[in-house]
Amino acid sequence: MDELLQTIGEKAAAALGGAVLDQTWAFGELTLTVEPTRNLDVLRFLRDDPAGQFVSIIDVSGVDYPEREKRFDVVYHLMSPKLNRRIAVKTATDEETPIASATAVYPGADWYEREIYDLFGVLFAGHHDLRRILTDYGFDGHPLRKDFPMTGFVEVRYDDQEKRVRYEPVRLNQEFRQFDFLSPWEGPPLPGDEKASGGQ
């Protein structure tokens, strides 16, 4: 546990009254779990506080927990060059409730949030250009959701005769993930089998 980060976390919790719900430690780094409607308050405090100066956003990631009511976690990873320390800010949301875009505090969150929108379907209120960034514009669904089919919904191929890309429903030419775990060898017992089975 890093005493400096612990002090910064406690200071944020005290200054922002109810915005910080929990503080956890993992691998020597502090994660602040924050109220979904107050994520910008926490990010702004960490950026502007003279003791922390977490002025660099390293990454924004998404996590899907489909069994929860608020199934998505959005995690902001921040860096303080002054302290040479990292801190994570985590908030939860569901499929319909947008969370405030961090681009108002960290303009560098722009493409990270677009990626999370594209792959998870998380909505960011106030994002100036929230559209897909990795999948095609007509793509159906969000491929990093745990309930997204592993085969997808359509397959893409280039038709050389028509000179264009074609989208067709996925067609599996063989059984998919149907494994027979029984022994494929059948026939008379081999010498030594009686030792394994304990028989005569």
What secondary-structure arrangement, pairings included, does this model have?
Elements: H1 3-15, E1 20-26, E2 29-34, H2 39-48, E3 56-64, E4 72-80, E5 85-93, E6 99-100, H3 110-120, E7 124-125, E8 154-159, E9 164-169, H4 193-197
Parallel strand pairs: 2-5, 6-7
Antiparallel strand pairs: 1-2, 3-4, 4-5, 8-9
Strand content: 25-35%
Uncertain regions spanning at least 5 consecutive residues: none
Give the overall pLDDT as a whole number.
87
Share of helix, binned: 10-25%
Number of helical stretches of at least 4 residues: 4
CATH superfamily: NADH:ubiquinone oxidoreductase Nqo5 subunit
The CATH topology is given as Beta Polymerase, domain 2
Taking the sheet with the most strands, its summary is: 5 strands, mixed
> What's the CATH architecture name?
2-Layer Sandwich
Number of strands: 9
Structural class designation:
alpha/beta
- Please tell me what the overall shape is: extended
Radius of gyration: 25 Å
Q: What is the CA-CA span between the terminal residues?
A: 61 Å
Number of domains: 1
**N-to-C SSE series?**
HEEHEEEEHEEEH
Strand order within the widest beta sheet:
1-2-5-4-3
